[in-house]
Amino acid sequence: MALMPVADALSAILAGAEPLPEEMVALDAAYHRVLARDLAALRTQPPQAMSAMDGYAVRSADAAQAGTRLDVIGEVAAGRPFDRAIGPGEAVRIFTGGVIPEGADAVVIQENTRVEGSRIAITEAAAPGRHIRPAGVDFNTGDMLLQGGSRLTDRDLSLAAGMNYPELAVYRRPKVAVLATGDELVMPGSQPAPGQIVYSNGYALRALARAEGADTIDLGIAADTLEATTQGIRRARDSGADILVTTGGASVGDHDLVKQSLEAEGVEMAFWRIAMRPGKPMMHGRLGAMRVIGLPGNPVSSYVCGFLFLVPLIRSLSGRSTIHHAIETAVLGRDLRINDQREDYLRARLEERPDGALIATPVNHQDSSLLGNLAAAKALVIRAPFAAAATAGSPCNILRLPL
Predict the structure, then answer these.
(1) Entry pTM
(2) The CATH number of the domain where 332 resides is what?
(3) CB 263: neighbour CB atoms within 10 A?
(4) How far is Cα 390 from Cα 360, in angstroms, rounded to an integer?
């Protein structure tokens, strides 16, 4: 099978990836969930004209000149409106958030008054509407304020509460199961024997998935046997996973059994090699409703492929309105050689010049096993297949890595 271009591989992975079913959750549980429907305000905010300051509610015509004296006939606090209209020559003591009494059209702040027993003297003239928040200045009943497909921020939750929603319709979180394969893998904290390596891929992949709003399932490490790998695939299916991510065993060696195991379980393979560096031995298929992404075992390849393919799939299943990574323009920090037939994603450091331009400097060693360089990188420099040699200072496209 010929190497599949990166864009075609992503299209295959996203094909038919519709949002998962809706569910209602309490407002406190909705942070970073994806809103399933447009949300219209159920009330007007504020529902009535209210004072923006502590002071006195007055008729502006009565307080148009400094030195005017008015009778104070009562008090308005937040939640305790005044029970009658203000007449000529009258004022009402009012506090921030208090409802503007009928007849009043201005607030004179307390610093601009002088108390004289039961009267006040105005020391600065009032103006109509001054220090008043009109009814509906924030929003009105029926205003469409939150859009379906948006990932809810902390400010969105405050707005939804103000709109009078105690719970929200959101899309179900995708379930992502991660299965590692390889006799050579041991868990962190172990003492590796000769030929063994410490397992690291799953920690980054699960964190990446959780950051995108998915629930994760750790299926552990399967030995390099068809039976063990098949059991892992079945556990993913039985757990109700929407996505199974495998790491390792995706190449063509005698001990790379993931593709065989997937096909033996009935997975329909869409592709198993892509024209990309790092990440050539990557696979994708489906087992019923469960989507399978087979990632390479090398940790950098695993992470970069997870970032490029798993993240958009999670976003699509989550109902996000924007699923693709944003491509930015930067300036190369060093020379690059001519590229071959594979699309390159070079790990790069990123800095900002005083003029705001971004400088992306690919690290010198791009080997797909180097976790130190991956951790230090802030972006991926994208190089198209057969890209010409590029010199430092020339423009390039980048994808920022998560912080």
Answers:
(1) 0.90
(2) 2.40.340.10
(3) 13
(4) 13
